[in-house]
Amino acid sequence: MAWYVVLLTAAALLIGATLVSTGVCLLQNYWAARSMGVPIRIIPISPLNPFWVLLDRKVLSVIRRLPFGDNSFTRYNWRGWEVEDRYRSHSEMGDIWVLVTPFKNWVYINDPQALMSVFRRGADFPRPVFINEILDVFGPNISTAEGERWKTQRRIATHCFNERNNNIVWSEAVSLANDMLYYWTTKSSVTSSADDLRTLSLHVLSRAGFGKSFKFVGHDERQSSSPSNSYKESLQTVLENLVLILGLGTKFLANPCLPRKLRTIHEACVSFQKYMTSLYEEEKQAFAKGEVRDNNLMTSLVRASQNEAKTSGGLTESEIYGNMFAFNFAGHDTTAHTFTYALYFLAAHPDVQDWLSEEIRDVSGGRPPSEYDYRVDFPRLKRCLSVMYETIRLYTVVPPIKWTDSQAQSLTINNKTIIIPPNSMVAPSYGSVQTDPRFWGPDSLTWKPSRWIKPSAGSHADVLSKPGEDFNMPVRGAFIGWSDGVRDCPGRKFSQVEFVATMASLFLDWRVEPVVAKNETLERAQQRVEDLIRTDSGFVLLLQMLHPERAPLVWKRR
């Protein structure tokens, strides 16, 4: 009995100490926020708290049912609230406000000019790499490096994402998209669209990243096998279980007492490391012999690093592995989730599909997708690219984050200079600035890819473009889908090429529709799909549709 009393007393003391500590931190951060002279909201739990991240949506869904359930806690204390909130908070509080939490204050900014200042002043507003440290699974990388090491890695990464590699991405995406389309069009309905798009993205990365090409296999045709059997299986297992790998770590997963599923994930990590090591050694030997090999990312990374080593050191072996993992992580989930959103938006908007098909037919000139030419055709497929931009505008899969580090920083917003205290998170309000009617018009919340296309300026039009159309970029800073400034996404064009090649292959001769339920019209089914996008979005590791299989799709020839 005495032990129960001791345990209960210890638990009570621990809870009490936690509450006191949280209260003290909140008070300190509140006074720091007040010094800025901007609106403030307070939440009791840090959005970076790993335990809260696992429980936030479930706990808040219960609290919202209570009489006092509509408050700052339920409004702001969950991952992805920015997407649901859009520009509502900034409309209420202005272009800058602060969210006070026990760990750090979060400064939300909705002014394009101020955001560009933040992005350009990389030394004043660095990326908070401590958030991304979990990505050091296979070694330090461009997402977690700082200072001179980051500059070296960025410089080498820039050499890797080049036009030769983009040509590989294009050819592989076209081929895989055609195989995927054949798989989809032979089925009466498709519930595996998201899984199949992940497979396509994985295989594009396999070829463009490591020089290994694989034929597309639909979700229902896949056969499970050990991740140690092949490079593809190991990489696929790693990417599909990133939440567990990043959350638990590879050392914990190595425990032989764990369930079989977790041990399989560790087996995949070990196998993937071995494959990277083998490829790395092959590329080093080829470089030493002066052999000209493929233009995949691994080859380019090793060669660029070896050339850099002649003057300033290059990358360590660990950094090579770390960056290859970072490229795969960034290029797989982000593109696959964007593909899924875009496909379901298109299924809900047949008029946009017709608009796309018109451009694709004009550019193809009767050629099948297998005869598309990256250098000639990609610049002309502006409508296909606009679908990607518009999808990312409304559903940014990876939001950018900055912070002030140990120094206070000044920032001018609407002609007023504001001093942001040290150790403040600076959050570009992507959900707001990318939907604010001031920058996007009264239909800013509507998915409308045509907003990115404008009539060309006569003789100034690009000769490779569809006659009469140019790409219409918004005010600089109003769209931050790939971040901006010195730490923008180095794989931006890689993802764009993959997306456009896939769209141009899928929608040349085919269209997609939602499966119509009993006693439902096609128009109602389309609205149901759009409602699903809005209500079914949430963060797992990144923003994604959580249950796209709830809206089966069907493909029909034009």
Walkthrough of the structure:
It is built from 23 helices and 13 strands. It has 558 residues and is α+β, with helices and mostly antiparallel strands. The strands form 5 sheets. Strands 1-2-3-7-4 form a 5-stranded mixed sheet. It has a two-stranded antiparallel ribbon with strand order 5-6. Strands 8-9 form a two-stranded antiparallel sheet. The radius of gyration is 25 Å and the shape is globular.
What is the gist of this entry?
With 558 residues, the protein is of the alpha+beta class. Helix content is 53%, strand content 9%. The strands form five sheets. A five-stranded mixed sheet has the order 1-2-3-7-4.
Give the topology, please.
Elements: H1 2-34, E1 40-42, H2 50-63, H3 72-76, H4 81-85, H5 88-93, E2 96-100, E3 106-109, H6 112-120, H7 129-132, H8 147-160, H9 163-185, H10 193-210, H11 231-240, H12 242-248, H13 250-253, H14 260-289, H15 297-309, H16 317-348, H17 350-364, H18 374-377, H19 382-394, E4 402-403, E5 409-413, E6 416-420, E7 425-428, H20 430-433, H21 437-440, E8 453-455, E9 469-471, H22 492-506, E10 510-514, H23 522-535, E11 537-539, E12 543-545, E13 553-557
Parallel strand pairs: 1-2, 3-7
Antiparallel strand pairs: 2-3, 4-7, 5-6, 8-9, 10-13, 11-12
Radius of gyration: 25 Å
Distance between the termini: 76 Å
Compute the number of helices: 23
Basic shape:
globular
Beta-strand content estimate: 5-15%
Structural class: alpha+beta
Low-confidence stretches: 459-465
